[in-house]
Amino acid sequence: MNTELDLRGYQCPLPVLKTRNAMRKLKPGERILILTDDPLAVIDIPNFCNESGQVLIDQSAAEGDSHRFLLERQGEKS
Fold first, then answer.
1. Strand partners, 59
2. Out of 3, 12, 18, 40, which one is annotated catalytic?
3. Whole-prediction pTM
4. Residue 49 annotated in active site
5. DSSP helix/strand/coil, 27
6. What is the mean pLDDT of each run of 10 residues along the chain (78 residues)?
7. Is 60 inside a domain boundary?
8. Residue 73 in contact with residue 29, Cβ under 8 Å?
């Protein structure tokens, strides 16, 4: 089961900060669906995944100016 986090209305850096906090609560292998309308999220969320060792499974446009990101929690980065 995926966790869903609706971050529409939040602007940089809040979408990444809230995503990071939500990811910390997940167990490895669990997924979270992020919905945001922050235009910088298309850069920030993939960068967060690269830097933190999390997996960006899917990134797509959603209704209006929104974007969806599906992330999977990995173990702690060593």
1. 69
2. 12
3. 0.91
4. no
5. coil
6. 90 96 95 96 97 96 92 77
7. yes
8. yes
| CATH number of the domain where residue 18 is located | 3.30.110.40
Has residue 63 been placed in a domain?
yes
Is position 78 within any domain?
Answer: no
Q: Which residue range forms the structural domain that includes residue 42? A: 3-72
For residue 56, is it within any domain? Answer: yes
Q: Is-contact 15 36, C-beta < 8 A?
A: yes
Q: What is the side-by-side order of every strand in the sheet holding 3-6?
A: 3-6, 31-36, 67-72, 55-61
Domain count for the chain, please give it: 1
Q: What are phi and psi of 74, to 5 degrees?
A: -105, 175
Q: What local confidence, expressed as pLDDT, does residue 78 receive?
A: 35
Task: Compute the distance between CA of residue 59 and CA of residue 37 in angstroms, rounded to an integer.
Answer: 13
pLDDT at residue 76 in the model: 65
Residue type, 28: P
